[in-house]
Design brief:
The protein has 497 residues and is mainly α. It is 76% helix and 0% strand. It is globular and about 70 Å long.
């Protein structure tokens, strides 16, 4: 398809404006604290919008409507787990990191279990972020390639370079403020799209609800206690663990806790960012359901090649190009890129901070000058950005980039969350007990994630549970193993002679 000139101009102006705005922060005189924490003076509403924008990647923007179009609102259960995870975060995690006052989320693990824990967790985080950035840019490029014929490689390279420029030069301030703008664009674009869909229906919103209700498109999934399929309880438990991971051990979130002026402001921003995701994710599911009703009423508008089950994720982009008025189409394409760019820019900045704090200052130069630290941050941002582009290009041609990303993320992040919860809750656990627990947990996670690639399809050794349960059981394995070792094996250093 050809994108109308007006929409192309709107999209290009948005890209230029967001990069220019981000780069403008580089003209300010900044310290390392400004680069990594924004000097601890960023308003809570901007931090909250940044947390929200980090939640919503381009995967969410495209996949949630596709999920609702194909089935029902089962995926919305993930959002229902956020309030509980946010409550734990503001009660325990935010005060912990504000008290430690370290730019690294993994300094705490070194305090509890020694240098190995910090290095292990930070390395896992870096690998996870590289895989995440690559997957997001690749999955962002797919619908654009299908709709407009734009080169997948070119989209990945242009998106990656655009984000890298302002994330590298502007630091956390540029990332947070551009995230705030992109969050507003994202919400505005989604609302505009839903409005057009409602007014395009002869019977308006009532007709959408009627069709959706008749075809069982509004359900939240089965309430059976079955963790082998995508039931209500499985998604709820999975969402709770994923969000505890986000709030508890994700460098991206911890840096935002430290960017706020006070602990109270950090708590406000955490509540804003997390709770805003709930109605916005609901908005995406409403768009998916409205698309289903729209093409039930207007089946002649949907090409035959998009009527297959595996084309559900392409329905929303197709409607953006063919069903929206000129101008709004450009806004929606900008919103899709905004969702991806906000997540990638966050990962670039947080990864650079981890490389400086957990690796350069730990093993290369323990007392660098302020200029050396800034140089390391700039080079690390450049390196991370280039590597993410390389990973995105490597995803090109993979049978299922999303499945590959989920497998990698489960292996790395599950181990970090389990170790953090063990150290935070079981105060008497020591380093050796923790290392054994991590080994057990990672072995379990690797088997659950990779078993289907190793064993035959009918093998009893393949994980019978749903893929999303990997991080749940992996985290529990580390925690329970560590707890039992702490209780059953006495620490020799505490034994009296």
């Amino acid at each position: 398809m050809d994108l109308p000139v007006l929409d192309l101009v709107i999209f290009l102006l948005y890209m230029l404006a967001i990069v220019g705005f981000g780069v403008s922060f580089s003209f300010r005189k900044r310290s390392v604290a400004d680069y990594t924490r924004g000097g601890g003076k960023i308003p809570s509403w901007a931090i909250g919008m940044s947390i929200f924008a980090t939640f919503v990647s381009s995967i969410s923007f495209l996949a949630l409507p596709g999920n609702a179009y194909l089935s029902n609102w089962n995926g919305f259960v993930f959002s229902l787990s956020i309030p509980l995870a946010a409550l734990v975060a503001v009660r325990f995690f935010v005060p912990l990191y504000r008290r430690l006052n370290s730019e690294s989320a993994y300094f705490y693990l070194e305090e509890r279990f020694g240098p190995w824990a910090r290095t292990y967790a930070s390395a896992c985080y870096l690998f996870t972020q590289l895989a995440r950035m690559g997957a997001i840019m690749y999955l962002l490029a797919l619908p654009m390639n299908a709709l407009f014929g734009w080169s997948i490689s070119l989209i990945i390279i242009v998106t990656g370079i655009s984000v890298m420029i302002y994330a590298m030069l502007g630091g956390i301030e540029a990332v947070i403020w551009t995230d705030a703008i992109q969050g507003i664009v994202l919400i505005g674009g989604a609302l505009a799209c839903l409005g057009v869909l409602v007014f395009s229906m002869p019977g308006g919103l009532g007709q959408i609800v009627e069709i959706a209700y008749q075809d069982d498109k509004l359900g939240l999934g089965s309430f059976d206690l079955d963790f082998t399929t995508s039931t209500f309880w499985m998604i709820l438990v999975y969402g709770l663990f994923i969000n505890l991971q986000n709030f508890g051990v994700d460098q991206s979130y911890v840096q935002r806790y430290l960017s706020a002026k006070t602990e109270r402001e950090a708590i406000k921003s955490t509540w804003l960012g997390s709770m805003l995701y709930i109605p916005v994710s609901l908005l995406f599911f409403m768009i998916g359901t409205a698309l289903y009703a729209y093409y039930q009423v207007h089946p002649e508008l949907l090409p035959s090649e998009l009527q297959a089950i595996n084309s559900a994720d392409k329905i929303f982009p197709y409607f953006i190009v063919t069903g929206l008025p000129s101008g709004i189409t450009g806004l929606l394409i900008a919103a899709i890129f905004a969702a991806g760019m906000s997540t990638v820019s966050t990962s670039v900045n947080s990864s650079a901070t981890v490389l400086l704090s957990d690796h350069y200052k730990k093993y290369i130069n323990k007392s660098p000058s302020a200029k050396q630290e800034m140089n390391v941050l700039l080079v690390s941002s450049l390196f991370t950005g280039l590597m993410s582009i390389a990973v995105g290009l490597a995803f090109n041609g993979v049978a299922s980039a999303l499945d590959a990303w989920w497998a990698l993320a489960s292996i790395f992040s599950g181990g970090i969350l389990g170790l953090f919860l063990l150290g935070f809750i079981v105060k008497s656990t020591r380093s050796k007990q923790a290392s054994i627990s991590v080994f057990v947990g990672v072995i379990l996670i690797a088997w659950m994630s990779l078993g289907s690639y190793i064993f035959a399809a009918d093998s009893p050794l393949i994980n019978p549970l749903h893929t999303n349960m990997t991080i749940v059981l992996g985290t529990l394995a580390i925690f329970i193993t560590g707890f039992l070792l702490t209780v059953l094996v006495k620490d020799p250093s505490k034994t009296k002679p």
